Amino acid sequence: RKEEKALIVIFGGTGDLAQRKLYPSLFNLYKRGFLKDNFAVIGTARRPWSDDYYREIIINAVGDAEDINGQATDFASHFYYQSHNVNDTEHYATLKQLADKLDDKYQIGGNRVFYLAMSPSFFGTIAAHLKSQNLKTTTGYNRVIVEKPFGHDYESAMVLNEEIAQAFPEEEVYRIDHYLGKEMVQNIPAIRFGNNIFNALWNNRYISNIQVTLSESLGVEERGGYYDTAGALRDMIQNHTLQIVSLLTMSAPVSFTDTDIRNAKINALKSLRVYKPEEVAQNFVRGQYGPGSDKPGYRQEDMVDADSMTETFVAGKLEVNTMDMAGVPIYVRTGKRMREKATRVDVVFKQVPNNVFGEGDNTLRHDVLHIMIDPEPKLSLQLNSKTIGHSYEYDTNSLNLNYSVPAEQRANIPEAYEKLILDVLQGKASNFASSKELEYSWKFIDSVRQAWDKNIDDMIFPNYSCGSMGPKAADALLEKDGNHWEF
Ligand code: BG6
């Protein structure tokens, strides 16, 4: 296993994301040997912490407080803390000194990763200072990881892009979408382009419709303040859902390289039909959860406006107008406080053109490919086949591919963040959204958002109850096309 040499500077090093995701992921990379001797991490934030205190936080965050073999302590010894005000130019000079010193000490060779795990309103100033204060090196690579939300609409996303681009050219920018680090999301191209049975059938001649569901049972938890200004459309559709849609609908990339994959995805997103304002209501449904027997409604959540009109549920019908996919409805759906946590794709194939078995009770069903992403990775193909016995009846059965692993091996499955951070260290960009992808996805999202904002007075919220699959209108959206949700 090749050790990656890098100095990682985390802006927002005391934050929730760093502690919940980044430190455990870095520790896993350490345990697997991807990080070893030649790496160091500088955590920065406003509050004054000592290195010792920071290292205690790291050891706790990696869930190894007992640290029997001293591995967590060794790992944490590579961590340094620097109190930092992102607007203060002098602070960058101090940061540079520390960075150069650590680069020397750990013989890193100038490779730097800057992780912006802070509010996007600071991205511009941080990027500008990193450049002007010479924190970018000339001896190794410089890469910047940007957390979501990447913009609030098309315009703000483009401003962010420009601000970052002043200091980092596109090939140095890694925009995190953690869904792209999920095993089964990464599996979509393998399934589509690695098997001729799917390669051959993946088009409007054989696919009836595609359904993408990202349902959550949790509510907004402690994130009401952010969520109430965002809503489900921005929080889950613009990024995760459209990224999955692009993987499902893109044409085969020329080769499996960053540039070719990105180009294929860009073309898919560019082909999204952008709705006219009057078309939005026929193609999109929004919802907000009301109280359940033991759960508060959205409007009762902390930091949420008591008469908030923010949506916590979205269902929509998309069209990707390429030669292969035009005419295939792509139904998407996401929401908080739904029946269960499930991230999945259902690809519904058309029925055989002529049913030689005749009609009757014994009807043929659609073949459906289920790609289960969360909570358990699983692939399942629903088929018609004859039942065993004298009569000629058929039934729907499934071919199942379980990726479930015994509990003791679970720790070996890399987490999304771990895979994505390793991608950055190795300079692999295909699992990150490019600026063009952002551009097209935001254009699409804005068209829905603007139409919704205009008609906000027509909405009656809440309109679905905790633990349901969303408002009835989400079912009607498919029924009017003669379809239904597979899940
Ligand atoms: C985040 C959203 O991007 O994804 C959250 O901001 C959401 O609102 C989360 O809960 C879901 O991620 P996962 O991996 O648990 O499906």
What form results from the Cα inertia axes?
globular
- Kindly report the CATH topology of the largest domain: Dihydrodipicolinate Reductase, domain 2
H/I helix tally: 15
Question: What kind of sheet is the major sheet?
Answer: 8 strands, mixed
Pathway: Carbohydrate degradation; pentose phosphate pathway; D-ribulose 5-phosphate from D-glucose 6-phosphate (oxidative stage): step 1/3
Catalytic activity: D-glucose 6-phosphate + NADP(+) = 6-phospho-D-glucono-1,5-lactone + NADPH + H(+)
Protein name: Glucose-6-phosphate 1-dehydrogenase
GO molecular function: glucose-6-phosphate dehydrogenase activity; NADP binding
Mind explaining what this structure looks like?
This protein has two domains: 6-147, NAD(P)-binding Rossmann-like Domain (Rossmann fold); 180-406 and 434-479, 2-Layer Sandwich (Dihydrodipicolinate Reductase, domain 2). The mean pLDDT is 95. It is of the alpha/beta class and 487 residues long. Helix 1 (16-31) packs across helix 13 (416-426), helix 6 packs antiparallel against helix 14 and helix 12 (277-283) packs across helix 14 (435-454). Helix content is 36%, strand content 19%. The site of 6-O-phosphono-beta-D-glucopyranose has 4 residues, from loops.
